[in-house]
Amino acid sequence: MDPSHLDELIELEATYWWHVAKRDLVTNVLLSQFPPPARLVEGGVGSARNLLEFRRRGYEVSGLDNSPTAVANARRRGLTDVAEHDLGMPWPSRPGSIHIAVLLDVLEHTADPVAVLRHAANALAPDGGIVLTVPAYGWLYSPWDRSLGHFCRYTARRLRQQAEAASLRVSWLTHWNAFSLPPAIVVRCYQRLFPRAVRPVFPRVAPAVNRWLLVLAALERWYVRRFPLPFGLSLVAVLRK
Predict the structure, then answer these.
(1) 90, 97 in Cβ contact below 8 A?
(2) Model confidence over 160-169: pLDDT tens digits?
(3) Which of 4, 49, 81, 130 is deepest in the core (most CB within 10 A)?
């Protein structure tokens, strides 16, 4: 991870609507599908704020990340069981020893996402699962994605195919972040028409706008607990053996 991008994540993680909304959504999924106590390993810990929240909710947490800066930051925050590791290699956890693997916006950064899924699956207990998020719609791929190191964006079909190749099944899947899809389409089209260097920063919004976006995210979260959302800027899924 670019150290400057990590610095931005740390700065925004507690209040910025996108980070808060995704963390709340994933936490809800975890609590409903894999309630604590349970052993949870996050692949790609980023700023470590998600792991701190999962620990607060009662999970026994550990983490893996290929960035020494991210690992050092996590350890400074009291997460001692975080190690530097390439997720495309066999995970250091004993096979069958973990209940949940969490991969939040990770697969799109890897050249071989099937290998990442396969290694995560090998570490899972028989009743365990993977909770993941990925950016949606290949036709939205833009300079923003390239600047973030994305190899691709996903469709539901592509995600199901990769899960099947890793001997996993999709037990739950929905889009999310539907309300930001229209402005994202406009921005990405503009970037294609007028290509220039793009720095991977989250667009700042006024505090009042941030609060309203959190309200919209909460309403969407209420909906996806009951029905799959047919469109949205990202996909969230639960995979099982």
Answers:
(1) no
(2) 999 999 999 9
(3) 130
Cα–Cα distances (Å) from 215 to 58, 107, 226, in that order, read 26, 28, 18
183 prior amide bond cis, ω within 30: no
Q: Are the CB atoms for 200 and 2 separated by under 8 Å? A: yes
159/95 Cα distance (integer angstroms): 23
- For residue 181, the number of C-alpha atoms closer than 13 Å in the C-beta half-sphere is 16
- DSSP-assigned states of every residue in 81-108: SEEE--TTS--SSPTT-EEEEEEES-GG
Structure tokens at 234: 């990202």
Q: Vertex 67, ends 70 and 131: CA angle to 5°?
A: 75
Distance, in Å, from the CA atom of 198 to the CA atom of 183, rounded to the nearest integer, reads 17
Q: What are the chain's domains?
A: 3-240 (3.40.50.150)
Burial 207-241 (b: 16+ CB within 10 A, else e): eeeeeebbeebeebbeebeeeebeebbbbbbbbbb
Strand partners, 154: 136
**Residue 144 CB partners (closer than 8 Å, separation 6+):** 187, 188, 191, 198, 200
Strand partners, 130: 101, 239
Residue with tokens 């550990």: 62
Q: For residue range 82-135, list pLDDT tens digits in order.
A: 999 999 999 999 999 999 999 999 999 999 999 999 999 999 999 999 999 999
pTM: 0.94
Write down the H helix ranges in the chain: 3-12, 17-33, 49-56, 68-76, 113-123, 143-148, 156-165, 181-193, 207-224
